[in-house]
Specification:
CATH topology of the largest domain: Aspartate Aminotransferase, domain 2
Number of domains: 2
Shape: globular
CATH class of the largest domain: Alpha Beta
Strand content: 15-25%
Structural class: alpha/beta
CATH architecture of the largest domain: 3-Layer(aba) Sandwich
Bound molecules: pyridoxal-5'-phosphate
Order of helices and strands: EEHEEHHEHEHEEEEEEEHHHHEHEEH
CATH superfamily of the largest domain: Type I PLP-dependent aspartate aminotransferase-like (Major domain)
Number of strands: 16
């Protein structure tokens, strides 16, 4: 096992507050414990920042998965559920797989308290696929919809919808302030004739998130929750559709989770042009198996949701995520070496964006990440600076280690 230890020296050993990195190869857990004890003697603080070559991956997606889930996948990889075959090799029509997909859907229902009049679908094409599938399935009454543009992905959803709708209106946009805030209710120019209102719940690139549910006077609210799904409880009954690419908080890429209110698929006809694999009614009738579904990501959704339930469900996730995000934002607010432009009320718990005073320093900060056991801290090219994506699977220790690096970097510059 490879260990990377970060030691912050106490008085009289190194300079107080100085840090050192130690790398060592050890053979079992008892030696890891011994290392921790010895490190405590040398330093006032010690952190194991990397075990077995695994690092803190701050990627915006695909992103970290809970380690117990990865280990379970490893354990079951050759023989899944006593079937004598890997889930990677398994027919989606088999009994074992039937249990997997049904349990995954049941778990989603339980963990998100999905009301009975909603269907849970597992579809192809990522969240981007839904940018087209939403207007195709829902935009058939007046042929119009209202889009709230709060960042890149809601802009992309709007652009795609224009291909299919008679009119895709912009109900509000925060482009003028560089998408640093979420448009408030009073900024929304909503039309009662709209077939739906579309929002992006958490803006992965700009680091903002809704802190209120828009009032749409009965018009179905559709939310892209790709980067915040299952990070905290949401009241599903307030939405017509919730959809999410699963590759941030739930599973590997290749699957879209769609939660849709039944009347929207029973009372509306999808556009004739709709590919059948994105026709919500047809997929609901076929239990998301109109064709071969993304079997492996669905299996991982089952394992991740099992794990989330064991951990105490979405209230427990919210508590952890609030704590992690608070650590990082409190640090950002306490100093002036790093800045974050995001409006305080709209700060994302999942994607924390920040920068130094210069692009050169930003580059140096990002270049130093690997030596501290981190990856993917570079901000999106549209924003620059840095971004730490701290989804459910990022442990608090990862955030603490990042803050340690931020402090050391600031002190050294
Ligand atoms: C909020 C949001 N919506 C949509 C997308 C696009 O997702 P996909 O790559 O699954 O199409 C992303 C991807 O990062 C995202 O963060």
């Amino acid at each position: 096992m490879n260990l990377l230890l970060l030691i912050r020296f106490a008085d009289g050993i190194g300079g107080p507050g100085e840090t050192a990195l130690l790398q060592m190869t050890v053979s079992d857990d008892r030696i890891v414990d011994g290392c921790r004890k010895n490190c405590r003697k040398w330093g006032e603080e010690e952190k194991i920042i990397m075990i077995d070559g695994r690092i803190y991956n701050f990627s915006a997606g695909p992103s970290m998965l809970p380690e117990p889930v990865l280990l379970r996948i490893r354990d079951e990889l050759l023989n899944c559920g006593g079937s004598g075959m890997s889930v990677l090799e398994m027919s989606h029509r088999s009994k074992v797989y039937d249990d997997i997909i049904n349990t995954a859907a049941d778990n989603v229902r339980k963990i998100m308290s999905v009301p009975d009049n909603y269907r849970v679908l597992f579809l192809h094409g990522g969240a981007t696929g839904m940018f087209a599938a939403i207007p195709m399935n829902l935009g058939t009454v007046s042929g119009t919809a209202d889009y709230v543009i709060s960042g890149n992905f809601s802009g992309g959803a709007h652009k795609e919808a224009k291909k299919y709708l008679r009119e895709a209106r912009v109900a509000a946009t925060s482009e003028a302030d560089g998408f640093t805030h979420i448009p408030r209710q009073e900024e929304l120019a909503l039309s009662p004739e709209a077939d739906y209102v579309h929002v992006c719940w958490n803006n992965t690139i700009f680091g903002t998130k809704y802190s209120y549910v828009p009032e749409t006077s009965g018009v179905p609210l559709v939310a892209d929750m790709s980067s915040s799904i299952m990070s905290e409880p949401v009241d599903v009954s307030k939405f017509g559709v919730i959809y999410a690419g699963v590759q941030k908080n739930l599973a590997p890429a290749g699957l879209t989770l769609v939660i849709v209110r039944e009347d929207l698929i029973e009372e509306r006809e999808a556009m004739p042009v709709t590919p059948k694999i994105w026709n919500f009614r047809m997929e609901a009738d076929k239990n998301s198996m109109l064709n071969t579904p993304p079997t492996f990501p669905i299996y991982v959704v089952k394992l991740v949701t099992d794990y989330l339930m064991e951990q105490g469900g979405l209230e427990a996730m919210r508590k952890r995520n609030v704590e992690k995000a608070k650590l990082l934002y409190d640090y950002l607010d306490s100093q002036d070496f790093y800045k974050t432009a995001v409006n305080k009320e709209d700060r994302s718990m999942m994607n924390v964006v920040f920068r130094t005073a210069s692009e050169e320093l930003d580059r140096e900060f990002v270049a130093g990440q690997a030596a501290r056991g981190f990856s993917n801290l570079k901000g999106h090219r549209l924003v620059g600076g840095m971004r730490a994506s701290i989804y459910n699977a990022m442990p608090k220790e990862g955030v603490e280690a990042l803050i340690g690096y931020m402090k050391d970097f600031a002190a050294a510059h």
